[in-house]
Amino acid sequence: MNQNTRVRSGLVAAIAAVIVAGGSLAAAPALAATTCATAWSAGTVYNGGATVSENGTNYTANWWTQGDDPATHSGATGSGQPWTSAGACTGSGGGTTPPGGGTTTPGTGGSGGTAKGLVFSPYKDITVNLDWNTNVMNTAVTGTRIPVVGSSNSLVSTREPGLKAITLAFATGTCGSENWGGVAADAFANANIPKLDAAGVDYIVSTGGAAGSFKCSGAALQSFIARYATPHMIGVDFDIESGQSATDVQNLVSAAALAQAKYPGMRFSFTLATLAASDGSYGGLNSTGDATVKAIKASTLTNYTINLMTMDFGRATAANCVLSGSTCQMGKSAIQAVTNLQHTYGIASSKIEVTPMIGVNDTTDEVFTLADVDTLSAYAKANGLAGIHSWSLDRDTPCASTTASPTCSSVPSAPALAWTDRFLADLR
């Protein structure tokens, strides 16, 4: 999260299936759809001749295969691909599985939920204190490692019952074959999504991040969402920091615009690095952020928010932040970043979110304090911002470190969950 370091149609499938050597077309089979076979699963071994379905298309295995997504690993017989399309299908032969395996609805299923009002959802770096045996999210923020949700001693049930939303970070790679810190998508989803849903905790699925990137295009994003969708999934977050080209960003925007028709309550947030110039220049987004906002404004996407990473402003100058003596005043700088975004791009407050880094930032003289929580929360409520998040839940515990840490705030005087508690109290 460190901003400095940090489908194919049945007709096309039918034509592809009958391409023969020399590039000519054999007589095309009838396009009448048949019943869909059992949905493909990444964990299942298939022998030659096995038939599966995915997203309204049947596929036949050409040989032994496991983990090869037929939507991206199919071709005509002799093409070298493990799957060959058998044409369009309808009905249910076991359901539709999103690319990469897993079930389309690991919890109760559904079309996803809808964010209500200003959302506060700390980011949860799922790799911090993850139970690598069960793939269940844990945290040691209270001093003892416990599950975030899903048990009687979980964080939400014992310490933070008021925490009603969380942002899961990060899914990386290509949608359909994404992973979570090396954990396969279906394994992570099946271990955590039903627990969040059962606990009544809203969640946002965040992708990309400082250490990775996320790529997705076309209708594949809808299948990606389906893997995690329950009535408590309220958003998808694209954290765009590294590894994504202008084309990749455009593909994400276009895919989100396409997905909003199927998921009308889903909110698509674009998390971008920013400065908070207070010198009258209204400086903020870098070239990647600028291109992202312009792509969004030129698209048909309406269910979007711009989530500003109001952290790590660098040198304490008026070109970078709001000054307090010789340091950046972090709460007021977050507000200035919002002002600059509105001035430059005309983005409404209701489509803007902010994510400060609690405690000591990567620039060590920048500290987002509990008083900054009060400043930012009051502004967000008064001006109707869409949300406040924080980086990160696992950092909300004291330590004596003088530099930024992924597992503590580097503020020894602040008790565990001080920032989370303060945000919850201020935003009530």
From TrEMBL:
Which residues are in coiled coils?
none
Here the segments flagged for biased composition (Gly residues) are: 90-113
Q: Which InterPro entries match?
A: CBM5/12, CBM_sf_5/12, GH, GH18_Chitinase
- Reply yes or no: does the keyword Cell membrane apply: no
Which Pfam families does the entry link to?
CBM_5_12
Q: Does the keyword Signal apply?
A: yes
Composition skew (Polar residues), residue ranges: 74-83
Q: Where is this region: Disordered?
A: 69-113
Signal sequence extent: 1-32
User: Domain Chitin-binding type-3: where?
Assistant: 37-86
For this UniProt record, the keywords arranged alphabetically read as follows: Hydrolase, Signal
Q: Which PANTHER family match?
A: BIFUNCTIONAL CHITINASE/LYSOZYME-RELATED, GH18 DOMAIN-CONTAINING PROTEIN-RELATED
* Protein name, entry field: Carbohydrate-binding protein
Species per Swiss-Prot/TrEMBL record: Curtobacterium citreum
